[in-house]
Every structure is written in C-alpha cells, then in structure tokens.
Specification:
single chain; 405 residues; alpha+beta; OB fold (Dihydrolipoamide Acetyltransferase, E2P); Chloramphenicol Acetyltransferase; 3 domains; four-stranded antiparallel β-sheet; 26% helix; globular
Length: 405
C-alpha cells in the first residue's frame, strides 16, 4: 500500500513549510517513529517522524522546497522489501539528489552552504559520522577559501540572491559597477518581519528608560560564578525581571481588546538570541518560581538548539514578556519593539562606568534599561513605577531575593 507523507501543521499560523533535510534516500527502509525529514516553519526547524514503516518510494519536495500544509511531500510503500534498482519507482526531477556524492549535513550547515554557494561534498565534516555542521561552515567562511565554492551548483538550488542587470558606464574608461543582489528571506524571517509590522502599526507603544547602578549586582554575579550556582548575566536579569513583575502583573499579560486584558499567573520570558539563521526568541517557562540554577541549565540547552537550528515550536511559544540584550555589542540604549501578543519588552544596554549621582568623584557601573509597552494595557505611570521597582531590585539583589523568594 502507498502511504502519503504530508506536510504537517506545526503551528496555528503555519500555512506552508520548507523541507530542510531528508534523513532517508529513495529506496531506504524506514521504521515508524524515526526522523524522516526536517521542516522549517515560521518559528523553527522541526524534526518530523515517519508515520508508518515501509520503504521511501518517492520524494515530491526536495530539500529546500516548500509545500502547503496537508499536501504530500513524499510517498512510502508499506512493504519493508527494498526497492529493486532495475524497477525502482520513478521520482520527480525536483527530488533530492540520491547519488553516492550525498553529504550528510545539519540543516543550518546546508542553508549556509546554499547562501554562500559552497559545495558541501568538498568540506570535511566534524559532526556525527562525518556530517558537516555549522562550525565547519563558519571556519571556512572566516578563512574565505574560494576554491571550495561550487562551480557546478545548479539552478535547481534554492536562490538566495538574484543579480540585477549591470549598468553600462556613461563615460568611457569608467570601471564597471558591481551588480546589486536581492536577498531572499527564510520563512521564519518573513514571518518575523510581518509580526514587527503588525506590532509597529497596530500597537500604540511607548518606551521609558532608567539608569541602574549595577556594582552590587555584578558582585553578586561573581559570587554565584565562584559558588555552586554559576549563571549567566542574562539569566540573572531574567530572574529579577520575573520577581519584579509579581507586583506589576499588567505587564505580564496580553491585550484582548474591548477593555479586556488577560493576565498570566506564571512569567514565561522570551530571550532574544542571535544565530547564523537569524534572530530567535526562545522562551524560558515559569521563571519566577524556578531556581536560577535550573533556569541556567534550561537556557544552555535551548541556546544550543538555537545555534544548531534545532529549536522546537515548544521552545518558541508561550512567552509572556521579552528580554532583549544588546549590551554585549556596545549599545548604550535602544528602543525595543513589543513582541505581540505580549504587551511589554525589556531592553538592556551595555555596562558603563559613570560618576555616581551626588558624588562626581566616585565612579560606578551602570546599565540603561528600557521598557517598551502597549499603551492600551498600561500607562506611563504604571511603567515608571515598575522600572523604579526593577531598579531597586537590581541595586539591592540580596535583599530582593531574601524578601521575594
């Protein structure tokens, strides 16, 4: 019996998906429950299991191809007998290359290879069983080794850039200008752009900033690192943000319209992280109640999945507020955009040394925090009071933990 393998619906807003990688080739036996292929939707790259055992008979959508939700991407024969080579069922021209030159690689490595027109087969892989992984591409791109770029990369590959016609110089002897290119975004980047447009055009948002002296917080952070609870500075901020929200629940909420605001009992913090595949916001659940050590362990796991392109829909959904830290890039302050359907996002600038207020000869470490909020849910006074409470919590971290935990 021939079984259809359909493009799964991996999110409420998902209408189509991109096949990133096939784990099996035409004619390979498969067992129910093993990973058959990976799909990129508008949130993450998700592994898809085989719904039945049999033999992979035909691939309709190759790696890099897109398909609508509920439409077939492949066919599986219910027999476990391998397909005979002299009577193998034909597959479409756009199916994945199954020649002996197939090179195993992670989804993110394949994307980087396509975008930079690099032949995967020419790269020695350092991953499991010799698979090419992200760090192999990163090393290669840093070295800028052009001989490995494929000269036989066919037009069937996913086009990530499109050259525009060159303009003929108007004056003799003028050098020929370099043609411009058109970059094609991934489905996730397209969805993220749509959400930012939705946020900026439909949410009446405003931002307030506050300077916080963080010498005590930095000292507490160093104490934790030397003890049995080494946590990152981001996790430390996440914890204090969650504790401060207990007194200001309207910032841990969603505006439902017509005067209705849904307030959430737990604080699920989305933390913006930059990856080779773009900006992602994985969510740490129940940050107010979990110990910092547990939050650190969860963050290490989810950030690793983010860098490897293996974030799941669970990792990326359920956030009730977002934290965005650009301080490590030397950014002093910035206006973060509210991530709908949330009503608030916290921005974190870099640590700077400045004169202490009231004592110009004394220098302290300070960070400028900003909170962008939905004016339909809260007003300026409410946000100002929250920032004052957040500032007090960070400037007296031990007292805060003792009184609220």
């Amino acid at each position: 019996m021939r079984i259809e393998i359909l493009m799964p619906k991996l999110g409420l807003t998902m209408t189509q998906g991109t096949v990133m990688e096939w784990m099996k080739k035409i004619g390979d036996p498969i067992t129910k429950g093993e990973i058959l292929f990976t799909v990129e939707n508008d949130k993450a790259v998700v592994e898809v299991e085989a719904p039945a055992e049999g033999v992979l008979e035909e691939i309709l959508v190759p790696a890099g191809g897109t398909q609508e939700v509920g439409k077939p991407v492949a066919y599986v024969s219910s027999t476990m007998k391998p397909l005979e080579t002299d009577r193998q069922i034909p597959f479409r021209e756009n199916s994945k290359d199954t020649s002996p030159t197939y090179t195993p690689a992670s989804p993110i490595a394949k994307r980087l290879a396509r975008e930079n027109r690099i032949e995967l087969a020419s790269i020695p892989g350092s991953g499991p069983e010799g698979a090419v992984v992200e760090r192999d591409l990163a090393t290669l791109l840093q070295q800028n080794i052009s001989p490995l770029q494929s000269k036989t990369f066919t037009e069937k590959a996913i086009p990530t850039t499109q050259a525009f016609p060159q303009v003929t110089p108007s004056h003799p002897g003028t050098s020929q200008p370099t043609p411009s290119t058109l970059h094609t975004q991934s489905p996730f980047q397209i969805r993220a752009a749509e959400r930012m447009v939705q946020s900026w055009t439909t949410i009446p948002q405003f931002t307030l900033w506050v300077d916080v002296e963080v010498d005590s917080l930095l000292a507490f952070h160093q104490t934790l690192k030397k003890g049995n609870t080494p946590v990152s500075f981001t996790i430390l901020l996440t914890k204090f943000l969650s504790l401060s929200l207990q007194q200001y629940p309207l910032l841990n909420a969603t505006y439902r319209g017509q005067g209705s605001i849904e307030v959430f009992p737990q604080v699920h913090v989305g933390i913006a992280i930059d990856t080779p595949a773009g900006l992602f916001v994985p969510v740490l659940k129940d940050c107010g109640n979990k110990p910092m050590k547990v939050l650190q362990e969860e963050w290490e796991e989810v950030s690793t999945r983010a860098r490897e392109g293996k974030l799941t829909s669970f990792d990326l959904t359920g956030g009730t507020i977002t934290l965005s830290n650009l301080g490590m890039f030397g950014i002093k302050r910035f206006q973060a955009i509210v991530n709908p359907p949330q009503v608030a996002i916290l921005s974190v600038g870099e640590v700077l040394r400045r004169p202490k207020e009231g004592s110009p000869s004394t220098f302290v470490s300070a960070i400028e925090f900003g909170l962008s909020a939905d004016h339909r849910a809260v007003d300026g006074a409410y946000v100002a009071k929250f920032l004052k409470s957040f500032k007090d919590a960070l400037e007296s971290p031990l007292l805060t933990l003792a009184s609220r935990m």
